[in-house]
Amino acid sequence: MARLSRRASVVLRGEQSGFGGGVGRASALRLGTLHVLLLAFGSLFLMPLIWMTITSLKPLDQTMTSPPEFIPRETRAPINGEIMPVIRDKDPLSEDSVIAKPLAGHEKGNLKLLPASAINPDGTAQIKYILAGREVPEEKPVPVEIVKRCKKGDYRVTEMLPQFSIERERNRTEPRWDVVPPEQITREPHLLWDNYPAALTRMREQYETRPWYASGFFEFLRNTLWICVFSVLGAVVSCTLVAYAFAYLEFPGRNVLFAMTLMVMMIPFPATMVPQYYVFKMLGWVGTSKPLWAPMWFGGAFYIFLLRQFFLGLPKDLLDAARIDGCSELEILWHVVVPLSRPALAMVALFEFIRQWKDFMAPKIYLIDKMQFTLALGLEQLFSQQGGTPWNLAMAACMMFSVPLIVLFLFARKTFMRGIAMTGIKG
Amino acid sequence: MLAAPWILGMGLFTLYPFCASIYYSFTDFSVLQKPVFIGLDNFREISKDPNFWTALTNTIVYAALAIPLGLFVSLVLALLMNGARRGQALYSAVFYLPHLIPATVSAILWMWIFEPQFGLINSALRPICDALNWLRASIDPTLAEKMRQNPALIWSPPAWMGSATWALPGLVLMALWNVGQTAFIYLAKLKDVPHELYEAAEIDGASTWQKIWHVTLPQISPVIFFNVIMGIISAFQVFAEPYIMTLGGPGNATFFLPQFIYESAFRDMHMGYASALAWILFMIILALTALAFRLSRGRVHYAGK
In A, which residues are within 8 Å of B2 by CB distance? Predict the structure, then answer.
C-alpha cells in the first residue's frame, strides 16, 4: 500500500523523465551514473579531435614518442651559449667526442663532430666530405682545431628554424648546432604555431612565385568557397520553387513525380556516377567545377523533400488570403512563404554548404587541373605527396580544413539541431 | 507549372543518368567511344571477376558490422542523453561534432590514431597487452617459454590499417565515431514519447529495462526503421575513407564496391562494366531495403495506429 501511494505521488507530481523517473536517492544515483557514462563517451568522441589539435601544435620529434605526450613541448638548449628552440638528436653520443674545425681540405672552416678517437696525436683527423652526393674521405688527414670537447652521453642539438621560411631555402643557410650535456636541455610547454604556416607552405608548389593568397591552401579555399556558395544558392532557390510546387500547386502527375523524387534519394551516388560523367563530358564540363554545383540549381531530392514537409506545415489561411488578394503564385511564394520559412531555408543552406565543403568523390572525378582543386582534394594530395607528410603538419592542415565547419556549427547550432530533428521526425 | 523547368532539370541530371546507367550496363563503353551493345556480357564477366566477389564480400561484412553496431551505439547514447535531463544540448553537440569532420580529414586523422607504433589507440592498448601477456605467462609457465621462442604467440596491439584482418574493423570503428547525427535524431524522437505510457508502465511495476523494451523502442520504431534504411544506404556507399587510408588494402582487405566502381570507370575506362557494377550495388540496397520493409511490418508502430 505504502509503495503504491508513493508511486502515485510521483505520478501526481508529474515528474518528467526519459525512464519514467524514480524516487529520491535512487534517482540521483541513476542520474549520476548516466552523466558519468555520458562524460566517458563524450570524451571518447572528443578525443580524436583533441588529439588532432594537440598534434598540430607539436614539433615533429615529439609526435614520435611512445607513450604519446599530451602537452606540446618545445626543447630548448644553449647553442654557442645562446638558449634557443632546438631539435635534439634521438640518441646521445656513444663515446667521447670533439667538435673540430678542419684547417685545410674541402671542409675547411666547417665544424664537424668527430669521435675523440679519430683525432690523431699530431692534431690531424680523417675528414669526410661530400662529392657527387656521397661521403668520401680526404686523401690524407688534415690538421684540425679542437673547438669543444664533449662527453659520452651528451646530445647533439640543432637549431630549430621556422619551417616556412622560403628565404632560408633559397639561401640554404645551415642551421647552427652544438653538443650539450643533457642537463642543459629543457623541455617546456609550448604551442608550435609555426606548424600552420609550414603546412600552408607544403601545400604550395615547390617553386611558387604567386603571392601567398593566390596559391596552395588559399587557392583551394577560394575554389571550395566558390563551389559552396553557388551550390547553396542553387539549392535554396531551386528547391524552394520545386517544393512549393509539390506542396501547393495541383498539376498532373504531381504525386508520381514526388514519389520519384523520394526514390532518387535512395540511389547511391556510384549508380549515377558514370552516366552523369558522360552527360557532363558531352556538355564539356569535365575539368571544370560546374558539375559540382550546377546540378543543385535543378533541385536536390533531399532538400525538396524537407522543404515540402515544412511548407505543408504552414497555415493555409495566409496563402488563401494572398490568393484572394490576387497575388500570382510566384508573388505568394516570395512575399508570404519565404519569410515564414527562414529557418527551413537557413537549414537547407547550412546543410548544403557543409556537404559541398566536405565532398570528396565528385571533386575527385571532375577536377583535374590542380589549380581548381577543392580543399578536400588538396588535403588528400598533401598527404600522399612523395616522401609523406610529417604528422604534425598533416594535422595542422586537417585542422585548417575542419575548423571552419566546427565554428559554423557552434554559431548555428540551433538551426542545425532543428534541421536534423526534422529529417528524423518526418521519416 | 512554374516548377516544371526545374523538375525537368532534376530529371536531366538525376533521372536520366539513372535510366541511362541501366542501358550502359549492357554495353561496352569507354567515354572515348560510343557505347556498343553487348548484352549480358558485362554481368557474366562480373560474376567471374574475383575482384567483384572480394569487393562484395568486404562491403557486406562492413555493412553487417557497421549498421547494427551503429544502431546500437546511437540508441544507447540517445537513451543516456534522454535520461540525463540536463546538459543534453552539450552532449548532443559533442557527439555530433565528428559528423562535421570531412571524410578526408577523418581518414588522415584516424590513420594517425591507428598508427601501429605511435598512434593513440595502440599506445593505450600496449600496456593492456603487456598486462595480459604477463597474466598469461604467470598462469601457465610453459607459455612463457613458448612465447620467448615464438614471438608470434605474444599478444600485441594490432597493426590496424596495416593488417589485413584489422583494417576493416578499424573502418567500422570509424563509422561508429560518426553516429552523433543518428543519436540526435533518436533523442529528438524520444522526447515525443508520451509520459503517461512510462507512468503506466511504472505503476505496473516495470523495471527500467522493461520500460525501454516495451515502451520506448516501440514508440520510436518508425525512426529506428528510418535510420536503418539510411544506414544501409550510406554503409554501401563508403568511398573516401578506405580510398584515402588504404586504397583498398592491405591486399584487398578494405576493397569496397564503390571503389571498384570508381576504378573500373575512371581508371580502367570500362564505363559499361562500371555501370553494371553500380546497378548491382543499387539492387543490393533495394533488396535490403525491401527486406527491412518486410521485417518492419509487425514491429513498427506508427502513431495513431
Answer: 241, 245, 249, 329-330
Instruction: Quickly name the fold that domain A212-425 has.
Output: MetI-like fold (1.10.3720)
Using DSSP's 3-state secondary structure scheme, residue A288 falls into strand
Altogether, the residues listed in chain A come to a count of 427
Distance between CA atoms of B203 and B210, rounded to whole angstroms? 13
pLDDT digits (tens, 9 = 90+) for A363-395: 888 888 877 888 888 888 877 775 677 888 888
B196 in any annotated domain: yes
ipTM confidence: 0.81
Give the other-Cβ count within 10 Å of B280's Cβ.
20
Please give the torsion angle defined by the CA atoms of residues A60, A61, A65 and A71, in that order, rounded to the nearest 10 degrees: -70
Roughly how many angstroms between the first and final C-alpha of chain B, as a whole number? 36
Model pLDDT for residues A104-135, shown as the tens digit of each residue: 777 777 888 888 887 888 878 777 777 777 88
In a domain, B32, yes or no: no
Query: In a 3-state reduction of DSSP, which class is residue A57?
Result: coil
In a domain, B5, yes or no: no
Nearest CA in chain A to B272: A274
Residue B68 lies in a domain: yes
Which of B62, B95, B89, B243 lies closest to B177, judged by CA? B95
| Cβ atoms A369, A358 nearer than 8 A | no
Distance between CA atoms of residues B162 and B36, nearest Å: 41
Contacts of residue B9 in chain A, CB cutoff 8 Å? 238, 297-299
Domain coordinates in residue numbering, chain A: 73-190, 212-425
> Do residue A424 and residue B17 have CB atoms under 8 angstroms apart?
no
* CA–CA gap between residue B38 and residue B27 (Å, rounded): 5
Residue of A241, A267, A394 lying closest to B18 (CB–CB): A267
**Choice between B2 and A90, residue whose per-residue pLDDT is larger:** A90
3-state SS, residue A51? helix
CA distance A228 to B286: 31
The mean predicted confidence, pLDDT, of chain A is 78
- Whole-number Cα distances in Å, A213 to A97, A170, A216, A228, A363: 48, 21, 8, 19, 22
In sign, the C-alpha dihedral spanning B39, B43, B48, B49 is: positive
Q: Which helix (H) or strand (E) holds A177?
A: strand A177-180
Q: Containing domain of residue B215, as a range?
A: 41-116+158-296
Q: Does B109 touch chain A (CB under 8 A)?
A: yes
Number of domains chain B is built from:
1
Residues of A in contact with B180 (CB under 8 A): 45
* CATH number reported for the structural domain that contains residue B66 in this entry: 1.10.3720.10
Separation of CA A271 from chain center = 29
Half-sphere exposure (Cβ direction) of A44: Cα atoms closer than 13 Å: 17
C-alpha cell belonging to residue A7: 508511486
Q: Is A63 on the interface with B (CB under 8 A)?
A: yes
Cα(A103)–Cα(A143) distance, rounded to whole angstroms? 6
Residue B210, CA distances (Å) to A315, A365, B78, B187, B190 in order: 41, 51, 17, 19, 16
| A219 contact partners, CB below 8 Å, separation of at least 6 | A371, A373, A378
pLDDT digits (tens, 9 = 90+) for A7-49: 444 444 444 444 444 444 457 787 888 888 888 988 889 999 9
